[in-house]
């Protein structure tokens, strides 16, 4: 049975990479994350704040040139939209605002690609450190 240390000399680049990754993760773990707190509003104030925030989110979204052009293509005028916004219920306002925020939160997927590459790199390092070979056959 071979030892984990077999194949890794003191000056091995993989050994250096492992120590750099250990130091990096230790440094990240040592940084404190600030906490935030605020008093909780009452139910009625929360509902009013949600409606106002939802209305602001929807109006900001509707002010975009691309959105206005698409609505105009569908035959909806800005005046019709402004007339119908106050008629929306709190639930409808919240649902539309949540969907708009969900669209913006998606981003461009760069974080997902970086995460996948980091996971693959960690797997490769673990395989090299343990001197394990992966053989794929048909």
From the structure above, extract its key features:
138 residues, mainly alpha, 6 helices
Helix/strand layout:
Blueprint lengths: L12 H18 L12 H20 L2 H9 L4 H7 L5 H16 L4 H20 L9
Molecular structure report:
65% of the residues lie in helices and 0% in strands. The chain has 6 helices and no strands. It has helices at residues 13-30, 43-62, 65-73, 78-84, 90-105, 110-129. Helix 2 packs across helix 5 (90-105). The relative contact order is 0.11. The mean pLDDT is 79.
The number of distinct β-strands equals: 0
Could you tell me the radius of gyration in angstroms?
A: 27 Å
- Largest sheet at a glance? none
Helix-and-strand structural type: mainly alpha
Strand content: under 5%
State the share of residues found in helices, binned by percent.
55-70%
Oligomeric category: single chain
Order of helices and strands: HHHHHH
**Separate helix tally:** 6
Average pLDDT level: 79
Termini gap: 28 Å
The poorly predicted ranges are none
Tell me, briefly, the overall form: elongated
